[in-house]
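Two proteins follow. First one:
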Amino acid sequence: LLLRWRRWKGLWAKVKAARQRQEQGLARMEKAVRGFREQHPSVKMVSILSLSLPELSKKLRDGSLPPEHVFYAYVGKALQITRETNCITEYMQESETQLQQAKPPGKLGLLYGVPVSIKDSINCQGHDSTLGFVKNINQPMAEDSVLVQVLKRQGAIPFVKTNVPQSLISFDCQNLIFGQTYNPLLYTRTPGGSSGGEGALIGGGGSILGFGTDVGGSLRFPAAFCGICALKPTGNRLSKKGVISGILGQKSVVAAVGPMAKDVESLALCMRALLCEDMFSLDSTVPPLPFNEEVYSSTQPLRIGYYETDFFTMPSPAMRRAVRETKKLLEDAGHTLVPFELTNVDYVTFNFCVRGMFADGCASFLKKFEGELERGSMGIFFWLAKSPNWLKTLLSWIAKPFVPRLSHILRSMRANTVDELWSLHHEIEESCHQFIAQWKRLNLDVMLCPMLGPALGIGYPGKLSVAVSYTILYNSLDFPAGVVPVTMVTDEDEEELKGYQGYFRDWWDRTLAKAFRGSVGLPVAVQCVALPWQEELCLRFMKEVETL
């Protein structure tokens, strides 16, 4: 007991130190901004913050806007937003030094002078990548991830790291070290996760471009919940070297790193900058595919598949309306829309995704929590995860007639033999080929899909892991998928929600109905999807949706 108490005390001391460092960083930001304002009282911060990324980068590169003005405008705004939402975990003071370094000789990078924010789990030299775990405090990274190296070579200035949920395997944004991050649009709502700090900071206007990761919707949830845009590329289009994932070595559900910004043109500019020789030489596992300008700027009419529901998670009235209204606008603009029949989403969710991620019987996942202070809202999950296979099978059998979805989850969390895992990988490949065959039969260019929304209340994502079905499908298939906000929840949507029952009418469906309530005025997005390696086409489609 004494040993446990000592260890517990030691962990709390680390948490306290990390929070102090966070506060000191914010104090440094405040001091730096105050100093700049005193020296440059005539600089109009508001007009700088109102520029889009393409406008801003043009002014920075042609010299009409000094990088210092932009930097301190965003440091000031980021400070305001983190005071409101608790989204920043660390201020990177070396960004001030990077700013002072003279212009590089020769051609300026596409992101010259642009301040960028970075998710906690993306390595930055000299800074922790905690993933919300106490054991990772005071473990500074030896080098930048490839993504951060390329950003710097393109002239960008990474200036803050942002908050995540403990372990990243969640679409909320809370951990014991830095606490809960709040949605900038409504503080009682989650910003989404796991790139929730990014969503809150960019949604609040404190960053013009940020980077996160996505293994089940972790870029797309925060973008949709905070009313901004994001792109989850094909898993290997951008380098993941130096990016820490929630479950190391897991290959059934494909993770990706991607950008988040207020608009689609910013995402396109970012991809243009990243898909360069530096990226391909620093990580030779990334295919050397530069940004395809021709595809992105094409104005050819598109053939677009669409569906309003996956028949697993019943869409909220606003989600359904978002797809319908977007479909109508696209048709009026001369595009062809074709219904796409989605089948077996329940099988994909349980058998490919849950089973794939926890194929070792949750051993790797549980290992991360050894010696940690808190397991968040995962109490019952931990108990189930730790249970032996025979007990998971028994409980699954007992639950089947009453709560079929719980039964499936329990069955999917059993440990697999190598033989079973290989069979699963084969089945996932076959399923992907079938999905592509259906896509090709309909001769589609892209697909319009629902995106979970509006933002759920804080604490709800922990109870609603089944609601990731709309997003995790495209991690399983490894297709590029972007999110664009298209509408807001209306009084009519709220009224219609009273009749929401879900497809299973179980505890999860009742909880989701509660989580959606009271959301008038909050943004709702759609997902835009393309085939693997077609990021430019995906962005072109997103741009079309945004424009309309």
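Second one, unrelated to the first:
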Amino acid sequence: CGRGPGGCRGGRTDMALRCAASLAAGRQPRGPRREGAMRWSSAAKPSAVKINEKASREKILTLESMNPQVKAVEYAVRGPIVLKAGEIEKELRKGIKKPFTEVIKANIGDAHAMGQRPITFLRQVVALCTYPNLLDSPSFPEDAKKRARRILQGCGGNSLGSYTASQGINCIREDVASYIERRDGGVPADPDNIYLTTGASDGISAILKILISGGGKSRTGVMIPIPQYPLYSAAISELDAIQVNYYLDEENCWALNVNELRRALNEAKAYCNPKVLCIINPGNPTGQVQNRKCIEDVIHFAWEEKLFLLADEVYQDNVYSEGCQFHSFKKILYEMGPEYYNNVELASFHSTSKGYMGECGYRGGYMEVINLHPEIKGQLVKLLSVRLCPPVSGQAAMDIVVNPPVPGEESYAQFIKEKESVLNNLANKAKLTEDMFNKIPGIHCNPLQGAMYAFPRIFIPPKAIEEAKAHKMAPDMFYCMKLLEETGICVVPGSGFGQREGTYHFRMTILPPVEKLKILLEKVKDFHIKFLEKYA
């Protein structure tokens, strides 16, 4: 290769020296250039850089090459109807005329976005944790400062900006355990079984990840209620598990029937290995509150069939109907005796996002997992450690949910007033929504016993169903899209949650302020009557 004393390397050294000399003289160095090769110069003017679109190579990531499990994921709460609502909002801002002046997003349970005021005490504690200099301010009550100091002492460097243990700050897990014991009338809770999470969704996804295994007919089946919250179907699709539907009884106020659970389980055994049973109580989107007998029957069924129970209890504070009461699965399990309590594996979930708090953006939550195999406990902590830790401000917010002011503390009176105001307001709006829907021909709404949503059944005429098919839409998607385009009201079609074939629904949150909710319901009424007339 014509090497000199330094061979090729010597040639490169000479070239480097020449380049250095050229730069010192203020000239651009010139080196050997391969025939046809293009050189990029950062000094080149943008106009001199021409992009040949035809020469662009194929993308590595395409719809064909992407993870098929991710492509299969659907999340109706933020699906096509919400994207369309966003487009309409942009058009309104540009001055494009519509039959309405605003889009009312009733598609999601985002309390503060709908105008609900934050709980003062919770925000005070999080503010103190975020900016500890405020601990010297006389503007903040001592009970808030006391909680903030305790949380900060549990943080590395006494800062909310530090990582925490993957399972969460220890003193907050202790507070969660104490809360569970108070809630459940003395049923013991171990902080070591508590895992702080990024909202309840994070905990649910983590438990499903660790539960799902096998292939073919031995692939894990996950039993979920229909209608369901789309997090479940989305997580099942992403993890390539098998979704096993059991139907809630709409004719009986969305009750859960064990005979239906047994039917679903027995049919699923032909094509998968059902080993997980998910319960949402109070229900989302259906709003039912399960009674004690129902919960006992479900626990017995899980014990008998060796199913791992997931109890989604994020709406435990949202119970409105007389005669209804929230019972935690943990409490009933304990009261059923040691044969059940020492054997049934149960993960239960709570969150800062719902209840009277409505703090969705903090992404605070926890899960309690009992009767987990000791070796699996280690595997779960390992899995959670991959995401390092939940948001620390969300952990602080969760602490105030489980450790609020108590009688005798200076913030108690204001706290209880704000909490009861939110819950009473929600109860009134639940009754208002139910009553107004049931006055509309072709709409039926079961009692809203709890949670934050109505899930009314709507009659869609055959002519409208045919037009929906022509547009390649589900009939209730067609209905909801028309509702959005003509009234500006954004709700989620029931097909996004699952429903019995031949029935149609939509989910709507009851969170808007009362006056806006009344306007919304009147608009739905007028739209539905015109819709029936048009397609009769």
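SUMMARY FIELD: Residues 412-437 form the longest helix (26 residues). The chain has two domains: 68-103+413-535, 120-402.
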